[in-house]
Amino acid sequence: MRNLDQYNITQAVLARLAQTPDPRLKQIMTSLVQHLHAFAREVRLTEDEWKRGIDFLTATGHTCTDQRQEFILLSDTLGLSMLTVAMNNDKPAGCTEATVFGPFHVEGAPVVEQGADVANGAPGEPCLVRGRVRGLGGEPVAGAEIDVWQADADGLYDVQRPDLPHHQGRAVLHSAEDGGFHFRSVVAEPYPIPDDGPVGEMLRATARHPWRPAHLHFMIKAPGYETLVTHVFRDGDPYLDSDAVFGVRQSLVAQWVRQADGLTTLDFDFVLNPVKKTT
Ligand code: BEZ
Ligand code: FE
After folding, report:
1. Residue from 60, 77, 193 whose mutation best tests the ligand 1 pocket (most atoms within 8 A of CB)
2. CB of 73 closer than 6 angstroms to any ligand 1 atom
3. Alpha-carbon distance 149 to 153, whole Å?
4. Is domain 71-272 annotated with CATH 1.10.10.10?
C-alpha cells in the first residue's frame, strides 16, 4: 500500500496486524494502534511534541537500573497500575482489597519468628503490628506467608540506602494456628516517590506532588487462597486523598494507636479470597 494519508493509515496498520497468530496479542496490538492513532488525531500531535514524547520515554528507559524501575513509576503515576489492579482483583465483599505492588518489594527478605522486630535498626517510632489472617468464610488461615515491607521515618526503603549491610523494614513471617500474627516495627510515615527522574519532571510539569500517604505493604500467600497484595494506610495522613499513585482504598485505612503504656499499636485483620475450584 502506498500514498497512505492521515485518513487511511490506521486501517493500513490494522490490516498489517491481521495475521498475528496469537489472538490475544492481535487484540491487544489492534486496540493499542487504534487508541494511539485516535490520541494523536484528537490532540493533533505535532512533530516536535512527538519528538519530546520519544525523548521522555528514552530518558525513562535510561533511568531504569537493577534498583530502579522508572517505567513502573510512570505506570503508577498515570493510574495504569491501579486500574490494572482494580480490574483484576474484583473480590467478593468482605475480602481485603488489593492495591499497587510498588517497586520496593525484594525477593528473599529475612524469614522471622512472630514478635520479631522487622525494623531491624530502621529509624522511626517503635510500634507493634498485630492481626489475623482469615478466609472469606471466617476460617483462620494457619501458616500463611506474610511478606511485609515499609519505608522508615526518613521516608526511605532499605533498598534506597545502598550502603546498608542488611535488610531493614522488611521480613517474611508465618501466621499461627489461629491465623494470628504480630511483629514489631516502626510507625509508617508519608514519603515522596522517587522524583529526581523523568517521572518527577512529568509530575512537576503537571503541578502534581510526589507524596504517598504512610502505609505498610503486605503480600500474603496461602495454599487454596488468592495471593493478596495490599497496603495498610495510616488514618489521618494528609495525602490519603491525593496519593501520587492512586492506591488508597478506604477499607485499608487503619489507626496506629498510642496506648496508655506508651506503646503504639496497629491492629489489622486480612481476609483472603478462596481460589475458585475449576471442576
Ligand atoms: C510504594 O508504595 O512503595 C510505591 C508504589 C508506587 C510507586 C512508588 C512507590
Ligand atoms: Fe510504599
Report:
1. 193
2. yes
3. 13
4. no
